[in-house]
């Protein structure tokens, strides 16, 4: 399995050019924006990345989780971060924090400071594997005198599923630990720019946080402090969730993709006013103020001139993808979305300014398009993880997959 | 002959070391790194396409931060960051003999920084835009035969007749004491006549479409599109003043969908902070000194639009002097005592706005409205209407209109 990356690369988080090449080329645009997918290599050991089982990305960095249970960082001042990560099962990275999950503890480090101890940590002491009761201590770096002992019932699972941790989840800004009520039966959690999407064991979706751009999916622009069910999805069991800067995505057990939130760059895959119709022309995105339009009306049949643009989709919408596909995984960047089908195709849409859509252009798209690079190289895409402005995909050679299946 | 770039760089610190880049801890070091690279590019002698690229990165990351959370809570440092991004972008655009299009883009970039950013380096974007504007004036031919009058549709406005018993009182140049005693203290609306006759805008530099184009035609401003801000299809967009005049005042462009001309309104915008040249044409009314606040606390807004702009019935938390400079407006006033007959919206966002369409009230939904007493008037150029704090007011423009409002306490 190989990992590929494309999109924002100003800190070398996807690839680093050789020094001599840098000096020769006056036009170093390829360095900052990577529009053609590039196979990832470790700076330390060029073969290392073949054993990468998961990738996490922040705006300026990439973290590789290796089969050997350690974490490698690439990108902005990555070399100055020298944590001992042996035994690490999972990690998440934000612009300011690196959180590592070990079998016996979880640690959150401030990546901007060179502290000797983590900013926050939590011990995990499994009482009894069969009864599924966890007791743990939680201490915050700043709170010298306070120790909290929490007794929590939760489902026993062998792997940690960051940002979910026993009793709650790890947020991207302080307070680092946020508790979650056990009755929610949290299965996986996605952190958006200012909102949170939760998937529960029975397949229900909850959301909370900032609602100003419809990213909570409750039908309005109201923010929520506590988890609230996304009622529009009730009755359809979901299997995965993802959250971007101002939008949210989930996939049903049947492989359907639902989207909601802000569509200013086409990140919902719905018609977006800001984008030019002709794919050759690229319109400058960031300076337009967005408008709020009501999303209920469907375009009139046969009347192509009356196109309805959707700026904010406040209720989940089922996304029509052409050709029709079953999705198994999705990930969201700041303003773009990437999704993998069960047949191994990668679709991307939304903001493309930095090449993060992988279509070898810098155009943004308001409808899902297959990334031909992988099909052309006979690669079967199995996973996708988005950083805010880039995309990382895991793929295997089709031949290898067939062998495994026989 | 000094090049544009030499004029712009004269406004910048002489070298990299003197160029300040100070931010709070909230701005991550990776972002500061991008700025540092941009600054290095600025003073570097080697050519590189990265200058535009790094500036764009700074603009993109700060734009995202500006759109995170609520505008009120946005850390000032992110707005400063955005301004730095604009600075570097302007430098990249103007470095090598820029075309007219590039100079206009640079002006727009300065405006974006002035509108969304926060002043940096002694408000350098303001300095830049002045240099850029003088460059544009040199290169653009003066169209002296700009016959605006011919292109404007002659619209006969629905001028409502003002009933004498309901008319707002008028008084000419009252003394401070007289105004205070008769109107400010009792919170009574009045039209002050003759108090802005000395404004250059009404005198030696009379405001007109041609004048506004010449002073600020290429400047980008926020425009409200839609009949009224309570409508579902109301939105905001950014246009240059030239585009705004062409599209919404001169009706050169039709709204293709409905066939009807969409209403565009340059409303509630602190235009005079953005374009100091226009600030020179107006004065703060002396009567504002009767308030408790400082002159710096007075909010001055521009209201510039075509016939038919409507501000729905609403109230503001400060005293208001509404000065009419160009064109005329119909204004209706309701006392705060009669709020119970005015059916304000329940929502937090619109609780200071009435649900009633003043000139077409739904008497079934709002039966008490028709019994609410009111005062009304037509404001002509030179009039200044005193709207006491919390007094409900409804405004409709009767022709192309430019008003200036002063909110004071």
From TrEMBL, chain A:
<feature type="region of interest" description="Disordered">
    <location>
        <begin position="271"/>
        <end position="303"/>
    </location>
</feature>
<feature type="compositionally biased region" description="Low complexity">
    <location>
        <begin position="276"/>
        <end position="286"/>
    </location>
</feature>
<dbReference type="InterPro" id="IPR009091">
    <property type="entry name" value="RCC1/BLIP-II"/>
</dbReference>
<dbReference type="Pfam" id="PF00415">
    <property type="entry name" value="RCC1"/>
</dbReference>
<dbReference type="InterPro" id="IPR052830">
    <property type="entry name" value="RCC1_domain-containing"/>
</dbReference>
<feature type="repeat" description="RCC1">
    <location>
        <begin position="255"/>
        <end position="343"/>
    </location>
</feature>
<feature type="repeat" description="RCC1">
    <location>
        <begin position="344"/>
        <end position="397"/>
    </location>
</feature>
<feature type="repeat" description="RCC1">
    <location>
        <begin position="203"/>
        <end position="254"/>
    </location>
</feature>
<protein>
    <submittedName>
        <fullName>RCC1 domain containing 1</fullName>
    </submittedName>
</protein>
<dbReference type="InterPro" id="IPR000408">
    <property type="entry name" value="Reg_chr_condens"/>
</dbReference>
TrEMBL record, chain B:
<dbReference type="GO" id="GO:0003682">
    <property type="term" value="F:chromatin binding"/>
</dbReference>
<dbReference type="GO" id="GO:0008168">
    <property type="term" value="F:methyltransferase activity"/>
</dbReference>
<dbReference type="GO" id="GO:0032259">
    <property type="term" value="P:methylation"/>
</dbReference>
<keyword id="KW-0223">Dioxygenase</keyword>
<keyword id="KW-0090">Biological rhythms</keyword>
<dbReference type="GO" id="GO:0010468">
    <property type="term" value="P:regulation of gene expression"/>
</dbReference>
<keyword id="KW-0479">Metal-binding</keyword>
<feature type="domain" description="JmjC">
    <location>
        <begin position="273"/>
        <end position="409"/>
    </location>
</feature>
<dbReference type="GO" id="GO:0140680">
    <property type="term" value="F:histone H3K36me/H3K36me2 demethylase activity"/>
</dbReference>
<keyword id="KW-0560">Oxidoreductase</keyword>
<keyword id="KW-0805">Transcription regulation</keyword>
<dbReference type="GO" id="GO:0048511">
    <property type="term" value="P:rhythmic process"/>
</dbReference>
<dbReference type="Pfam" id="PF24472">
    <property type="entry name" value="ARM_KDM8_N"/>
</dbReference>
<comment type="function">
    <text>Histone demethylase required for G2/M phase cell cycle progression. Specifically demethylates dimethylated 'Lys-36' (H3K36me2) of histone H3, an epigenetic repressive mark, thereby acting as a transcription activator. May play a role in the regulation of the circadian clock.</text>
</comment>
<keyword id="KW-0489">Methyltransferase</keyword>
<dbReference type="GO" id="GO:0031648">
    <property type="term" value="P:protein destabilization"/>
</dbReference>
<keyword id="KW-0808">Transferase</keyword>
<dbReference type="GO" id="GO:0005634">
    <property type="term" value="C:nucleus"/>
</dbReference>
<dbReference type="InterPro" id="IPR003347">
    <property type="entry name" value="JmjC_dom"/>
</dbReference>
<protein>
    <recommendedName>
        <fullName>Lysine-specific demethylase 8</fullName>
        <ecNumber>1.14.11.27</ecNumber>
    </recommendedName>
</protein>
<dbReference type="Pfam" id="PF13621">
    <property type="entry name" value="Cupin_8"/>
</dbReference>
<dbReference type="GO" id="GO:0046872">
    <property type="term" value="F:metal ion binding"/>
</dbReference>
């Amino acid at each position: 399995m190989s990992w590929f990356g494309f999109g924002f690369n100003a800190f070398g988080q996807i690839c680093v050019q050789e020094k001599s090449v840098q000096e020769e080329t006056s036009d170093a645009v390829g360095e900052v924006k990577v529009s053609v997918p590039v196979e990832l290599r470790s700076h330390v050991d060029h073969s290392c990345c073949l054993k990468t089982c998961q990738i996490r990305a922040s705006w300026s960095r990439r973290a590789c989780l290796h089969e050997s249970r350690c974490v490698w960082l690439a990108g902005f001042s990555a070399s100055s971060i020298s944590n001992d990560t042996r035994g690490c099962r999972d990690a998440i990275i934000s612009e300011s924090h690196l959180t590592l999950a070990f079998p016996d503890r979880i640690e959150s480090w401030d990546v901007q400071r060179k502290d000797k101890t983590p900013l926050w940590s939590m011990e995990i002491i499994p009482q009894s594997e069969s009864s599924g009761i966890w007791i743990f201590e939680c201490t915050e770096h700043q709170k010298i005198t306070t120790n909290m002992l929490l007794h929590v019932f939760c489902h026993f699972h062998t792997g940690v599923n960051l940002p979910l941790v026993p009793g709650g989840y790890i947020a991207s800004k302080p307070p680092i630990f946020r508790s979650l009520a056990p009755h929610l039966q949290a299965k996986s959690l996605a952190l958006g720019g200012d909102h949170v999407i939760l998937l529960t064991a029975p397949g229900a979706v909850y959301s909370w946080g900032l609602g100003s751009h419809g990213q909570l999916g409750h039908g309005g622009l109201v923010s929520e402090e506590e988890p609230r069910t996304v009622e529009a999805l009730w009755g359809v069991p979901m299997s995965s969730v993802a959250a971007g800067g101002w939008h949210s995505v989930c996939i049903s057990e049947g492989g359907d993709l639902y989207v909601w939130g802000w569509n200013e760059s086409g990140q919902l895959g719905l018609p977006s006013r800001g984008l030019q119709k002709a794919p050759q022309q690229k319109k400058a995105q960031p300076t337009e103020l967005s408008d709020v339009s009501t999303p209920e009306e469907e375009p009139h049949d046969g009347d192509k001139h009356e196109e309805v643009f959707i700026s904010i989709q406040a209720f989940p919408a089922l996304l029509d993808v052409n050709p029709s596909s079953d999705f198994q995984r999705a990930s969201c960047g700041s303003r773009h979305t990437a999704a993998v089908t069960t047949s191994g195709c990668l679709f991307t849409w939304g903001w493309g300014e930095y090449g993060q859509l992988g279509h070898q252009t810098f155009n943004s798209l308001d409808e899902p398009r297959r990334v031909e690079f992988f099909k052309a190289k006979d690669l079967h895409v199995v996973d996708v993880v988005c950083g805010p402005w880039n995309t990382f995909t895991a793929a295997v050679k089709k031949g290898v997959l067939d062998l495994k299946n026989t | 002959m000094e090049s544009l770039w030499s004029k712009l760089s004269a406004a910048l610190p002489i070298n990299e070391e003197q160029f300040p880049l100070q931010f709070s801890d909230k701005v991550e070091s990776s972002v500061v790194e991008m700025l540092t690279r941009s600054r290095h590019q600025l003073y570097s002698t080697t050519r590189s396409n990265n200058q535009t690229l790094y500036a764009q990165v700074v603009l993109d990351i700060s734009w995202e931060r500006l759109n995170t959370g609520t505008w009120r809570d946005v850390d000032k440092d992110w707005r400063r960051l955005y301004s730095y991004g604009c600075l570097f972008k302007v430098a990249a655009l103007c470095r090598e003999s820029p075309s007219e299009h590039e100079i206009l883009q640079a002006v727009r970039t300065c405006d974006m920084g002035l509108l969304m950013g926060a002043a940096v380096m002694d408000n350098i974007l303001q300095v830049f835009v002045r240099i850029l504007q003088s460059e544009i004036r040199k290169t653009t031919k003066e169209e002296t035969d700009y016959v605006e009058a011919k292109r404007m549709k002659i619209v006969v406005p629905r001028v409502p007749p003002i009933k004498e018993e309901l008319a707002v009182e008028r008084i000419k140049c009252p003394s401070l004491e007289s105004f205070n005693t008769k109107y400010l203290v009792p919170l009574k609306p009045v039209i002050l006549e003759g108090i802005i006759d000395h404004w250059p805008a009404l005198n030696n530099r009379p405001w007109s479409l041609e004048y506004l184009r010449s002073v600020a035609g290429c400047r980008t401003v926020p425009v409200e599109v839609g009949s009224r801000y309570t409508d579902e299809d109301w939105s905001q967009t950014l246009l240059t003043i030239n585009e705004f005049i062409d599209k919404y005042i001169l009706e050169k462009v039709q709204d293709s969908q409905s066939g009807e001309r969409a209403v565009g309104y340059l409303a509630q915008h602190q235009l005079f902070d953005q374009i100091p040249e226009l600030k020179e044409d107006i004065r703060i009314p002396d009567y504002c000194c009767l308030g408790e606040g400082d002159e710096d606390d007075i909010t001055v807004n521009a209201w510039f639009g075509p016939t038919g702009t409507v501000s729905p019935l609403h109230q503001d938390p400060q005293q208001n002097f509404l000065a009419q400079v160009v064109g005329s407006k119909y204004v209706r006033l309701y006392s705060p005592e009669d709020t119970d007959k005015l059916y304000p919206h329940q929502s937090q966002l619109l609780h200071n706005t009435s649900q009633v369409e003043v000139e077409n009230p739904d008497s079934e939904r709002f039966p008490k409205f028709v019994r609410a007493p009111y005062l009304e008037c037509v404001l002509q150029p030179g009039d200044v209407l005193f709207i006491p704090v919390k007094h409900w007011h409804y405004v409709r423009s009767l022709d192309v209109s430019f008003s200036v409002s002063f909110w004071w306490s």
